[in-house]
Structures are given as C-alpha cells and as structure tokens.
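Model: You mentioned two targets. I'll fold them one after the other.
Researcher: Yes, keep them separate.
Model: Target one:
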Amino acid sequence: MNGVLTIARREIQSYFASPIAYTIIVIVLLIMGFGFLRGLIPYSALFAADAATATEAGINIRNYIFREIIFWAQISMMLCLPALSMRLLSEEKKNGTAELLMTSPLTTTQLVLGKYLGAVSILGMILALCSVFPVVLELLAEPEWPAVGTAFLGMLLYGMVILAIGLFASSLTENQIIALLITYVIFLPLWLVDSVVGFMGGPLDEILAGLALGKMVRMLGQGLVDSHHLFLPVFLISVFLFLCVQVLESNRWR
C-alpha cells in the first residue's frame, strides 16, 4: 500500500509542477459553471414570475439546474480528463523512466493503482471545488440533497471510467497524442450509445441501455440508485486497469 501511495503522491506533485492540473481544473469549473447558470437562470425566472405555479408544476432543482450541470460536467470531463491521463505512462516511456519503474520493487499492479489514484485525486479535487454550486443553491433554492449526493457520485464514477480508459491507452504508446486519440476511440461509443437507446428494440436495446454511461450519470443525478448504475462503471474501471496491468507485464518480460 505504501508503494501505491508513493506513486500517487509523485503523480500529484508532477501535475501541479506544470500547468496541466491548474488548466484542467479551471476549464472544468468554467464549463460546469456555464451549465450551472444555464439551469439556474430559467429556474429563477420562472420561480420569480409565479412561485406557486412553478412549485405546482414540479419545477425543481433536478429538472432545471442539475440536469444542466450534469450534462456539462460530462462534456467537460470528456474533453479534459483524457488530457490528464494521456501522460501517465506515455511520458514515462518517452523519458526512459519506465524501465526504472519496472525494475523497482513495486509490482505492476501497485504501479498501475498508484498512477490511477494520482489522477483520481485530481478528479476528486475538481469535484470538491464544484461543491460550491449546491452551496450557492442552498442560498437561492431548496436543493434535494440526496439527489445532489448521488449526482456527485455519478460524476465521480463517470470521471473514473475515463481515467481508467486513459491509463490503459497511455500504456499502449509513448506518444501522448496517440494515447489521447485511443482514449476517445474507446470512450466515445460508451457515451454516445445512450443516443440510440430506444431505436433498436428487443434485446439489443436492453444491451445498449446497459452500456450507456450517460444514462448512468443521468439516473444518479435524479437520485435514482440502482445496482446496475454502480456495477457498470466499477466493471469498466476494473477491466481497463486489468488490461493496463497485462500490457505492462508483457512489456516487462520482453
């Protein structure tokens, strides 16, 4: 466990030693802030016009505010997190330090988990800073805090899937741009499949719905927790971390 934490701490320090972490944090916060305002402005306008009618019509925090925040959170993470993960192993290979890590007392699993934990820590910092949005809402409206909690859980799991895919992509090449492109090639179908659910019909539609990450985030954002919503991201994270370990093991014994 100490080895995992050492690698994670090393990654966090390297992120903040360059503009990478600061840039990604600012971009994600700006995009999510845009979504927050898109949801807040119409809610405020409708509530100010006729609070009683707005309440009777079911205008609430989930429909008018967190729907926008969650959508734009997905966009911001999809754009920014692959840039966070593309360097995790690619940079080590390019700089020639991968061999040193491979010959260290650390196991391959410890190395992968440490790298992954470092990237997830940055994601956690981003979401912690985003907690200002529900705090502001507490002053202006009455947020449904259980839904807020599950929404943040959904965004965390969504981001963790992207980082796991990005780490795997980074293990395949020393070129960070190629790692970035591989991440998008793998992740985009999982995100876009939500748009075709309902058109296929039959068992295929159920299979596609089961692979739809966007639906998972949306349902958790509404406070609807199902075991499948938790199983899908955990399964994907486990698969891509396992594949990453296998790639590094094969490289170690070449």
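Model: Target two:
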Amino acid sequence: VPGDSFLAWCLDVQGWLTSPATYSAVSASDFYTGLAGTAKISALERLATAVLPNVNTKQESGAFQLAVWEIINETGGPYGLASGNFRVGSATDGAYALAGQWLTSLNNGIFSADNMTLSVWKDFKNVTQDLAVFTTPVPEPEIYAMMGLGLGLLGWAGRRKKLKETAAA
C-alpha cells in the first residue's frame, strides 16, 4: 500500500535484495520447521521483544541484523559471533560488540519474554532475499471491552463511596 512502511530483516546472509520479487507472507513455523526451527523462532522472537523497540541507530540496526544472522545460521551451542557455524570477525560502529551483548543476554535467559511474533516474507521465485518481519499482537476487541467494563466499575464504586460519605456528613 503506498505510504505504508515496515521494518524487515534479511534472512539470507549471502543473498541480495533484487527486483522484481514475488513475496508471500508465511508463518515462521511454516518457514522454519522441526525442533531446530522452533528453537530459532523462539530465540528470534525473544531477541526482537527485548531489543527491537529500541533499535533506532545504524549501530543498533547493524547489531540486530548480525544477531538475526547468528540465530538463523547457528546449528548448536550458545549464540556468539566469534565461534560456531556463523562467524563474524568485526563490524563497524560498535555493532559487533552490541550484537555480542544481546546474544549473551539471550544465552543467559535474560531475554525470556516473546511478545513479538515472527513472520517471513518468502520469495517463492528464489531470486532475492527472504525477509523476517516482527509484529506485536493487536489486542482483540474483547480486551478493550473488558478494560472499559473495569474502568466503568471503578467509576461506579468511586461514585457510590462519595455518595455514602456525603450522606454520612
């Protein structure tokens, strides 16, 4: 839709974004299957929940991309950029160190909440990158109704208390 925007993160470390591409949104569990896929999805969603809302600079953006690539490409062991299947020697602007801090927090269980949901924009023609997109859940209308009811009950209780105090005085 013209004027709309979103953030997406590259999944293929050796691929390029090219045009034209034919993207379709797929669930993370359809893209990453099996137990290894479930572990990748969980780690990516925990990382995104912990740090993505505060990614505002090129350093933070680069660090987040490095951490995403590490999670996607690592097949075992703790996440880290210096060892394992995916290795990075350095990155500019402090992105390497920041990604390392985030991955350490992920390894140590500090990043445990997973409020963000991963979906993948898959290029079914395989001419360009697949993209990770993280979203936060949208509250259902029932949530707003329950919140409104709760606020209404608080208001009613407060008014009733005020009427009793006025009558007693």
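Researcher: Noted. Anything on target two?
Model: The longest helix spans residues 141-168.
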